[in-house]
Amino acid sequence: MAGKSAKPEATTIFDFASRKKVEGLHDKEQYWLWKCFAEDPLSACGQVPAAGAEGEAGESGSAPAISGGLWYLAMSGNSSVRQFVAMNPQATAECLTYLSTDSSPVVRHFVGGNPSCPVDVLERLAGDKSTPVRRSVAANPGTPAESLRRLGSDACSAVRQKVAENPNAPPQALAALAGDGEVLVRHKAAAHQGTPPEVLSVLACDPSAIVRRAVAANCSAPEEALARLINDEELGVRQAAAGNGRAPEEALKDLLFEGDIYVRRRLASNESTHVETLNQLARDRDPFVRYLVTTNEHRSPALLADLSRDEDVLIRRAVARSEDASFEALRVLTCDPDMLVRLWLARNENAPAAILEMLARDPCLSVRQAVADNPSASAAAMEILCADPDIYIRRSVATGGPTSPDILRALAGDKDHMVRCLVAANVNTPSDALQYLSFDESADIRRRIAGNPAASPRTLHDLATDPSDEVRAAVARNPFSPFAALKLLSRDADPYIRLLVARSKHALPDMLLALADDHDPWVRRAARRQLPAG
Questions:
Q1: Is 200 exposed, middle or buried (0-12, 13-18, 19+ CB in 10 A)?
Q2: The three-state (H, E, C) secondary structure of 485-533, written as one string
Q3: Gap between the Cα atoms of 297 and 358, Å rounded
Q4: What mean pLDDT comes out for the span 444-449?
Q5: Distances in Å between the alpha carbon of 416 and those of 412, 420, 421, 423, 442?
Q6: pTM to 2 decimals?
């Protein structure tokens, strides 16, 4: 029968010649649309295969099937279907080349924005008569430098703006765009980290405030330009300059008595701010300014002694989490009326042994449990907790003796809670018994399993989504936790859980990169320390 082959991998371009002559092709078109959108059929080809992997993809049959299906859809008479193919990153170079000559400018627009678009096609589309097409090419990171330079002088300001936003825009193009007549184009050039420093110095004197603000926030801006922008008449410019890590220390001192609290907040969080300036900001009337000073890695440890008595509870919690607080500052916090202050102090692995010994007698169960879980707790603290009136605390410091696997399996179904807890903590318990106990209603039992090196990867992955933060923390500490579990925990809502992942020696680089931009300063700091230099 003439028409398209039922096997897309065996289909050639010539099969499409009789496309409209075959009945039922509309149903096949719907089939391939479903095939490309459906999750399960694409599970084996969620990424474009790497070079040299064609043989493996061909053996599975999935990648050629989708490729053939996209080719089929590329011949559709429906523009919307061709647009779907043009934007699909799995479309082959030949398919995109074919669609780049489509009569519909919308289809060519999606081809120009496709990350898989061939370089020669991008070069040709850079001269397309349609403005949206040129705009998509200007925004594509794969567009060659020469094409970007040409598009930088395009008659349409929207195209030039996309060139200025392109992360791979060449410095020459950015320098030319810095003198553009459109404010938004100059603004994008001023915000681009690839713009040459001498060009940023010129843009620092731009008549537009949004351009100067972009320069003030640019980490590539030269110090002399930032020193000038710190005293800018526009408030937004001063705010941006106050938070720039490249701003000179002496210039930042001029913002100390700035009336705007947002300028002072940026100044307090800036790691380039001089220690003396931070000392004065520690007495600021705005509590969030004082909090940001507390979390600033370059502030003086001596400040924490005064901040440990601050009236704002968030500041005292920040002091409790600090790694360099003095003994006196932490001793004050052991009697803090806020339970979370004492809880964060009990979790602090840098807390002195004597502080943890004081917290081992805390009236709050969660605080004492945190001391028991703290790897820095001394033998004296554990001795105190061994006699704790709460049975869960005593189990935290107890160790299970060697028992046969069969007996442990039997005890895993025991009615007594203490027996099940001891089984959950025993490293000799077989993994199937631990899997059974992982569904126990007691969070203390699940926490024991989460910390047990004998627990299977599946069990630990399931416990990574446990409602109890203590269970999830135990999974994060477990050196045998699978990467999938750590991945889940790296996105946990609790900053303490994310902190444990950031400190883990088993966290993958992509987890650490994400945590390096975490909103919590301690998580960011721990992740950046784990990342390799450079």
A1: buried
A2: HHHHHCCCCCHHHHHHHHHCCCCCHHHHHHHCCCCCHHHHHHHHHHCCC
A3: 27
A4: 94
A5: 10, 7, 9, 11, 12
A6: 0.67
